[in-house]
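dude i think i finally got it to work??
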Amino acid sequence: MAQPTTDPIAVEFAGLPDETRAPAGERGGSLEFVNALLKRWRFVVGLPVLAAILAAVVVLLLPPRYTATVTFVPEQRAPSRGGGAAGGGAGLVGLAGQLGIPLGMDPTQSPRFYAEVLTSRELLSRVLLTKFADPRHPAAGDSVPLLAILRVWGGIWGAKSAADSLDRGVRKLARRVSARVDIQTYLVYLSVTTRYPDLSAAVATRFIEYLNEFNATKRESQARARRQFVEQRILDGERELHAAEDDLRRFHERNRAWQESPELSAEEGRLHMQVNILQEVYLTLRRDYEQARIEEVNDTPVITVVDPAVSPVRQSRWREVLILLAFVLGGVIGVVGAWTGGRLDRLRREEQDGYREFTGLLQRLRREIARPFGRSPRRAPRP
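look at this
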């Protein structure tokens, strides 16, 4: 006959169902994890600290980085045709604008378009070939291309090649230039990072200048093409109107009493209606032509600079971020290593056969990995 247990914990859990007993195993697993961390607390604490110290040493050896940021907002101009949105259409356009979708407007006027242009190869190449004050020799007052300031070398073994140097420079500058868009306010943020604060501000400002030039040239060419098209249509419409008026005039000359004939009256009505239609077309084209001439001068959306680029006083925060990442990564590795060590200790105590098999497999894997890099072991001589 089984003797009743006197353990208070066993008595307490004896009458509970299995669902209530299950969390005890989970608490046991959590306790095992905490014990493993406490047993190897020096490793858990020391590894992230050591990683942060090493990252700080590496950061101090790296050159400084300064980031200059310029903020601007492009003018949002609705299409000149289409009558605008009304009712539910206006609400849809407003919702799309909040989501950053340029619904109801020219996509080439959207902030995302300007952000893509800023990081395009054409603009990057143009900035790389632009001369700036050499920050490496400020006393000399020389101006050299940005390609030389960034120390971009092309070709093989340092042999310069214009095309290869420019290609390498574009990729290098693209990593130091970023453009992001705030879809709520339509603000565009352009950031340029270099080793020199004044150079970062100068490069960011030059990007905005070239963006303005690109924008003006593109809009001007579009407005000119539109004006030339309307001008040609005016000439064609004028010829067609004159031909219709001549037809109506000749009809009146040949048929003095056209009012007395139903057929001639109908013919005269058709000719007169044709003249009226061509007159309306001609007047519409004239109005469009005057509008196109105005738009050719004043159709360039303005880029309003909210915050101009200034020389940064402090370095970029990538140093602090790198040290923090090293500390976090070291902490994660320390915790995982401590937990793994605790599991191996438990495996060695409870499952000796499995532990020996595990260590044997690790040794075999180490020998397989080291075999291509070392000499094959010599066999012992037979007695």
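DSSP finds twelve helices and six strands in the chain.
im so relieved honestly
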